[in-house]
Design goal:
Two copies of one chain form a homodimer. By secondary structure, chain A is α/β, with parallel strands linked by helices. Helix content of chain A is 31%, strand content 24%. In chain A, the strands form six sheets. Chain A has a seven-stranded mixed beta sheet. A five-stranded mixed beta sheet of chain A has the order 12-13-14-15-16, sandwiched between helices. In chain A, strands 17, 18, 19, 20 and 21 form a five-stranded antiparallel beta sheet that branches. The first copy, chain A, is globular. Chains A, B: Pfam families: AMP-binding, AMP-binding_C.
């Protein structure tokens, strides 16, 4: 903030200058949606009018159970229409939505629920066995609301207050939602790093509304065109993971058709993609790789032509983007992280590239993209000085935007580490090109420092992944007396019985040396084939475990 | 605001939660624009990089002249690239942009400049003769910056500090813009009512950023699709009139090509429409009527196929929309007012209508449309109770949104009249249909109260305008002993020498009575033909003067 004195004028006593509330997104969507629907697996569907009613009913259910403003409400569910309703109803009564990462180990789930001070829990019946043994250690929880896909008697020791649908059906369809301070916390969830306990990040009504408006602007831009009222959306990034990248809010604002697939089962996903004519999804590269490698898809028995997939979490490689393109799947990139709500950049193709052929587009599709409106993004050297936008100078990415977590919940030291001099330090390393496009090379701790140079493990992964016979690869730095560090690769062969030789891979990489893209010393001498590469709970390469396996 | 206590969490000391600043819109546009340009008549063009540099240079020029945060800077110019730069540079240094309505009478211009407390003036040479006689009465003005389209010596008694272009060219292209309270006033301008002095309305950085994001969302929506990065925009609503509906901000956010036509001269407008391949403009119905009636356009000698025109200010009639459509011009409606920044509703066609034929679309194209995101809009009866959404119940339109003027500048009584119980009362009368579409019938004071019923003068104008031989029509209520009021019409004939008879018009209107659209007593007995219908400075029917002429 500056010390200048701009003109401030008083408001009329009877005037209103409304705070930004998540509920406004829902109201806008209801007006826009027409007959568009919210679909849950092959089990239920209803229009936006009913969606709105259910949000109001859920608010009644919660407040009738004593949930009040300021309470933290935990949700444990797979992607569902109910989860979408929780995205709105919980923050709209002034409570905080805690989206529990159900893929964490039980002790970590317990840690997050204790740390968040959850006061009420909404859980799908599948998670009863997870929560029952933990309930004793959660004395703050005043009640459990159960979600069932089919009504059947259930034996549980949990103090269940009732079943979601039956309690909902008893409630009136209009709730007088209050309007309150837009800086009130709306959502809270935990991100797992490579060390220490999960860290809680939180977002306010204001932050989520602004994130949604900016994301909507990017998603509708030419050269991207991922989503609008007339498209069908299905997430394949879980709703507990950074609000499914905020897209359920954005899709709701637009009034788009939304399909929630429940637990991610390959058969159900593919069934819904086809039967609901899904236009747009988002996922991590690993998941897209699973889809395009699936027998039925790869053989074009199932036709996914026209499906647009936004890839984030890790970089989209050119080989994966090409493989998808051959199957008619249109991939784009985006970049962000749990701490950033998450969207920071979007791979909106420039005008001349958007009209070019696929080969020309390919490198652009794999860049992280342009900062979306209201984001300030810099790539800085080790002295925090912005670097040249030359596409080559590599440094840490730091950002400002009106939707960045203002702290890690109850973690002062780690918060101060995240925020330095008013900038959120992403811990990611990348470069900006002449057009302002960001390319992420690595996590700062995954950069391989060899012979005084920085080598991007991600770039090397991208080259190795193009080698015939290689299905997947992870590169890390290993200590080396002479060079400081040297790159080492862990790879999965397409045919485990007949993997390429190390010499094959090295010979393949020579072409990139010839093309000036790779320096010869960057070719790894250590390449080891394994059955599976360790991944984190959200499907990213788990470099910590990989290091221990090399 | 409510009395509930939601969860508020403290921010890390080193964290930033940026305020919403107009400058962020410019930065987003520069990233998106690629080679897109800002065009001024047939005189100049430059890309967004230069646009940004010129904004920074203008900030240097202003501060070098002693303009500081909190100062009000008046601009008198026709639509130009310079004006666009003023839209950004002036608020971005913390000063207030006063867009002077140059079409007002000199004494009104003086009134607004005195009332606004203008401290500095940027004016086009065409307005020297307007301002010279007033300068003595503007002692607060510390300097005048002159804009010239061609450099030539000028004799003026005004204390001119220099010429815009030459001062700009001396300045560095990077200005360290401060970030400050988003509730600081950014813009101020005056709206003329039918009685009393012009009223000042003002908008903050926050309000303009939110208005822009919401307008961008609406403009990119399917069923509207007016503007995006790949389109060419040219305003035909002056930039001094409610920020040209905020579209210069929205076009900048998107990085679209922008064409500024200077003074609205029919020849230049048409030349630019064709040579710059303009995709999108906005204007009042009167102006569109002028264009479609122009010889060269009507004869299709000039082809405007594909031109999209957003019509506001007054309702778009079905006959004008049809006439435009026959020439390939695609019209849409929007609704708002000076007090509302202005956009409140947008005629985004519903999915089923957007794919229907023109005849089906026609009535939808002429409705004011759906409230855009973050707008709450109600139609209320005389007790401020919301009416049924049945497309028939007519009442006053009242609104809430995060971009409504919080007062009339230094006008407490009129501010309190505008704002009642936390709602901005538009003074417009309309109805909402089942799908939530607003139709505006009238100004509340223009509603004709006859025999205890409300008759919409606008609706009657729409029917009469369809009568063969009638070019334009205005309807007002005149006092009547028996009925309270009776409708009277002022009309312009297509052929002034051969106007239709009153009986012709009345006979023509009978069909609407038969169709149940009009009640028989609503057929006016007074219909008078005139050469021209009085209009206000922004081209709306001037019902006050019309009343005096009937």
């Amino acid at each position: 903030m500056s010390t200048i004195t701009p003109k401030m004028l008083p408001a009329t006593a009877s005037a209103t200058n409304p705070s930004l509330m998540i509920g406004d997104l829902l109201d806008a969507g209801v007006r826009m949606a027409g007959d568009n629907q919210i679909v849950y697996r092959d089990q239920s569907r209803h229009d936006y009018g009913r969606f709105r009613e259910r949000v109001h009913q859920l608010a009644h259910v919660l407040t009738a159970q004593g949930v009040k403003a300021g309470d933290v409400v935990a949700v444990l569910d797979w992607d569902s229409h109910r989860y979408l309703e929780c995205f709105f109803a919980i923050p709209m009564i002034g409570a905080v939505l805690h989206t529990v990462n159900v893929r964490l180990a039980p002790e970590q789930v317990l840690y997050t629920m204790e740390h968040a001070e959850d006061a009420f829990v909404i859980l799908h019946e599948e998670f009863i066995s997870l929560i029952e043994p933990l309930a004793d250690k959660l004395p703050l929880v005043r009640g459990y609301l159960l979600c069932q896909d089919a009504s059947q008697a259930l034996n549980t020791t949990l103090p269940v207050v009732g079943e979601f649908e039956s309690l909902l059906s008893e409630q009136p369809t209009d709730y007088a939602f209050p309007r309150f301070d837009e800086n009130a916390v709306a959502t809270l969830f935990y991100t797992t790093g490579t060390t220490g306990n999960p860290k809680g990040v939180f977002f306010t009504h204001r932050q989520l509304v602004l994130h949604t408006l900016s994301e909507a602007s990017a998603f509708q831009a030419p050269g991207f065109e991922l989503l609008n009222r007339d498209k069908v959306y299905m997430p394949i990034t879980p709703m507990f993971h950074v609000h499914a990248w905020g897209v359920p809010y954005t899709a709701t604002l637009m009034g788009a058709t939304q399909v929630y697939p429940g637990r991610y089962e390959p058969e159900m996903l593919v069934k819904l993609l086809v039967s609901e004519k899904v236009d747009f999804s988002h996922c991590v590269p690993t998941l897209l790789n699973m889809v395009v490698s699936a027998e039925a898809v790869a053989s074009k028995q199932i036709d996914l032509t026209g499906w647009k997939v936004l890839v984030g979490g890790s970089a989209l490689t050119q080989s994966l983007a090409s493989k998808a393109w051959e199957l008619g799947i249109d991939t784009r990139s985006a970049y962000g992280m749990s701490e950033t709500c998450p969207l920071l950049t979007a791979g909106i193709l420039p005008q001349d590239i958007a009209t070019a052929d696929f080969a020309t587009q390919l490198p652009w599709r794999c860049k992280a993209g342009l900062p979306i409106p209201l984001v300030r993004l810099q790539v800085v050297d080790s002295n925090d000085e912005p670097l040249q936008q030359d596409g080559k100078s590599i440094g840490e990415v730091r950002v400002q935007a009106p939707w960045l977590t203002q702290a890690y919940f109850k973690e002062e030291a780690r918060s101060t580490e995240l925020w330095r001099d008013g900038w959120l330090h992403t811990g990611d390393v990348g470069s900006l090109d002449e057009r302002g496009f960001l390319t992420i090379s690595d996590r700062i701790k995954d950069v391989i420092k060899t012979g005084g140079e920085w080598l991007s493990s991600l770039e090397l992964e991208s080259y190795i992944s193009q080698c015939p016979g290689i299905a997947e690869v992870a590169v890390i730095g290993v200590a080396d007396d002479k060079w400081g560090e040297r790159p080492a690769a862990l790879a999965v062969a397409v045919d485990a019985n007949n993997p390429p030789t190390v010499a094959d891979v090295q010979a393949f990489l020579e072409q990139f040396v010839t093309q000036g893209k790779l320096r010869r010393w960057a070719i790894p001498s250590m390449i080891r084939f394994v059955d599976e590469i360790p991944k984190t709970s959200v499907g990213k390469l788990d470099k910590k475990r990989i290091r221990s396996e090399v």
